[in-house]
Structures are given as C-alpha cells and as structure tokens.
Amino acid sequence: MKQFVNIVADPIYSFPITCVLYYYMLKYYKFFGSKKFAWTVTLIAIPVFLIMMADPNFYLIITWPDNIPITILIVAVSFFTWYSIHKAAINDTRQEEGEVPVEATPENREKVWCWPNLVYTEMFAIIAGTVFLIVWAIVFKAPLEEPANPTWAPNPAKAPWYFLGLQEMLVYFDPWMAGVVLPGVIVVGLIAIPYIDTNPKGNGYFCFNDRKFAISSFLFGWLVLWLYLIIVGTFLRGPNWTFYGPFEYWDFHKVVAEYNVNLSEFLWIKFLGTAMPSNILVREALGIVLSLGYMFGLPPLLAKTSFFKELISKIGMIRYYITIVLFLLMFSLPIKMVLRWAFSLKYIVALPEWELNL
Amino acid sequence: MSEVRKHLNRREFFSALTVGWAAFAAASAGLLSLAFRFSYPNVNFEPEMDFVAGLPEDYEEGVDERWKNGFGVWMVKQEGKLVAFSNICTHLGCIPNWQPTDLKFKCPCHGSGFYMNGINFEGPAPRPLERYKISLNTEGKIVVDKTKVYRYEKGQWDHPDSFLEV
Ligand code: FES
C-alpha cells in the first residue's frame, strides 16, 4: 500500500489524477458541496492521516517545522473551497427553483455599521494573529545555521514555502520564463481580472452556474497549478530535487535515470538522422514556429469555436484576446510538464547562445 | 497669488525656478549616489579572481574538489586535458555537488545534472558548465583566471586557454 502511494504521488501520475479529481469536483459540485460529503471525507481523512503518521519517513517530513504551514494550508484551503462551493450549490439550487440567492433575502439585506461591527472583528483578528505568531515562534525555533558560504548550497536547497511552486516550475523552464515572465504574467493577469471579466452576475452572492468559466479557470490556476506545485515542492522533493514518495527514505544516492533532449535534437538527430545545422535559427526553426503558432496562431483559431464565439459576443474582441493569451500562458506550464514526462523534452526552443530557452 | 506676481517678473521667476530645480537635482544626485554607494559592501570576502593551483602532476584523473570551497572551482582531468570548471549551475546559479558514485555534478535546486566533462544532460540547465581560463606560469605552476570564461555553446572550448594538455 505504501509502495503504491509512493509511486502514485510522483507528479507523472499525481498531476493527471489531480486534474481528473478537479474536473469531477466541478462537474458534481453540488455533491461535493454537500455537508454529507464534507463529513465523510473528514471522518475518513483523520484516521488515514494518523495511520500515515506512524510511518517514520512520513512523520519526519510532516513535522519538519518548515512544512507545518503547508499542512495547515491544505486543511484551510480544502475547507474554504468546500465552503464556497457549498454556498454556491445552495444558491444555484435556489435559483433553479426561481428563488433569489440566500444573500438577497430580506433578512440578509439588513445593514450594520462599519464601526463598531467590522472594526471590532478586525481588531480581534489582529490580536489573534499576533498571539498565533508569537506562540508559533516559541514552539518552532528558527534554525541557526553556519555562516553563508558562496561555494556551498544545502541539499535540497528549498525556497520559502510560498515560492516552492515557482521553484517547482523552474524544473521545467528556463529561469527567464519561470522566474520573470510567468510570475509577472500571474501578477498582471490577476490585476487584469476585473477589466476582462464583465459578467455582472455573482456580485455579492456565492454561485457557480452564473460564472462557470471564470470560476473554473481561476480555481484551476490556484488549486491545480499553484497549490499542487507547492505541495509537491514541500513534501515530495528531497536531495538533488529528486522526487521522493511520502513514505520514502531520503536516500542521497537515489539515482533517477533521466536524459533530457531538446526539440531540435529530436528533429535533426533522431528524426531526420542528420547533424544539427550550424545556423542556430534553422536549428530551432521547428520550435520557434510551434511557439509562435501557439501564442499567435491559436487565439484566432480558438475564436472560431462555438464556446469562445459565445464568450466574444459577451466580452468583445479585445477582452477575448487578453483572456486567451493569459489562458495560453497558464496552460504552457502543464503542457511543458507533460512533455517533459512523456518525452524527456527539455526545451522547445533552445537558444543558449542568446539566453533564450522556451 | 497676485502678491507673488507683483514681486517677480518673468525673468526672475525663471531664474528662481532654475535655481530651485538645480538644487533639487543636486540633492537627488547626492542622495542617489549615497544609496548607490550603500549597495556595495564595505568589506569584500570574495575570493581572489585568480589563483595558483599547484603543479599539473598534483592532479589525478577525475574530479578534484580542493579549490571548490575557497575559489568555487572544480579541476577535472580527463582524456589528457585538465580543465577548471566554474561550480555555478548554468540554470539559476546554485552550487551543484560532485557525486563520485554517480559520476556527475548534481544541482540541489532543480535537479540539473552535468557529466564529468561539464555537459548538461538532465534537469533544466540549458547549457554546460563554464570553464575558466587555465594556464601555466613561468615556474610551471597552474594559474586559474576566473575573469575569463569559456562557454561550450559558443564554441569556446577549443580555445587553447580553456584547457591544459597534461
Ligand atoms: S540552479 Fe541548478 S538546477 Fe536550477
């Protein structure tokens, strides 16, 4: 059983599994959002977690002070995701029956003053947060390590937990892409949401039916990409950034046979059986064409599909293009991950001469 | 407002404006230069950029780590050549480890791997490790100069300064 979990936790399997689970979560969101489901999962999860804690390797990785926030995060995010979907399911059912959302009923429309109601709540939250941090700092001591040495790095060298998703992304991308372009796009994209999402529905009440596309694409980026990668980076990456299952001993000499190949090497050496052309642009032509096609050829093509036609009629051409470019950039991450696992593909465009690798 | 206009004619206004802007620019420049100076350390613990690395006979076939901690250099002797590799990963600049059992340099940050000859073969690193300039001085000792790097993908590994025949 443990062996099985160790194997399945490998991103090669766990990423598709997460995607499938995510799909079914949204497809059957009313079932997922029911109280029965939440109680069942909680009641199953607690004993399972306790049994898993009996494993010494799992115990070590879970109780490592740096990793405890991630356990808290998993519990908190699961709860809040369930909570919002629970509320959305109730409202959607009400709306299907021709009623107004819960938030719009007369007893819920009553208004209160900001002072003292909100301010007191905030003050209490601040005090509770401070107490929590102080207790945390007393219980989990910050490690005092030897002075920094520019010629030595800890192994594994892990970023702070909130950056582990980015560090995991760096496994698949050039630092320019995973360290500068994609994080920048995430920030710009989040800022852009209010401007490209003009759907007036869902204001002030929980819902899913009214904004399916918006909610499912946001939650995909948040749960499946960002959080999943943080969890992988925290619990499943050991020395040399090698994958270790949750019950696996961190053996520093675990050897993973891996040999990554650029798309240009696939094309010229394996497929055409010739030497690599000396002109670097000719060498990378296929990758360049594919990347340009992906970024600039796909959006007009997708605009022809019925789904996006409907979207365009709602939000207009310019908003559509911004949305779809953000969308494609987001999906470049899973695409690249799958290509790496399936074909050991390193870079689609590899121009180390220009420090440009895609 | 009308008070001011009575006392300042156009020319006076502009000279006052010029003086004001000049003073502002000077103050900003002073502050900026202070801030700039502040971003450089007062004491520099960085190792020397070149060092004498003993005699060619001191090195055995394979990877030698004796200069790694002091200077960030791996000496690799292989196939009649002695080269000095930078110990900086070409992906994002972490410090890989030499793994004698697997005969590879392995980076702890995102798992890039390099063969003993510096060629990248696994993980995300886009190019091989960099070589430093290596030469013999008049006493026949090896001098490694880290200010000059030779990059494989630019075809610089054929350069006579990028290796020593041993
Ligand atoms: S820095 Fe070495 S693998 Fe990323």
Task: Characterise the protein shown here.
The complex is a heterodimer of chains A (358) and B (166). Chain A has 358 residues and is an all-alpha fold. Chain A has a domain at 1-143 and 205-254. Helices cover 65% and strands 1% of the residues of chain A. Chain A has 15 helices and two strands. Chain A has helices spanning 2-8, 11-27, 29-32, 35-53, 56-63, 68-96, 114-139, 164-170, 175-196, 212-235, 263-271, 280-283, 285-302, 306-315, 317-343; strands spanning 350-351, 356-357. A two-stranded antiparallel ribbon of chain A has the order 1-2. With 166 residues, chain B is an alpha+beta fold. The longest helix of chain B is centred in the N-terminal third of the chain and has 29 residues, at 10-38. Chain B is elongated and about 90 Å long. FE2/S2 (inorganic) cluster binds at residues 89, 91-94, 107, 109-112, 123-125 of chain B.
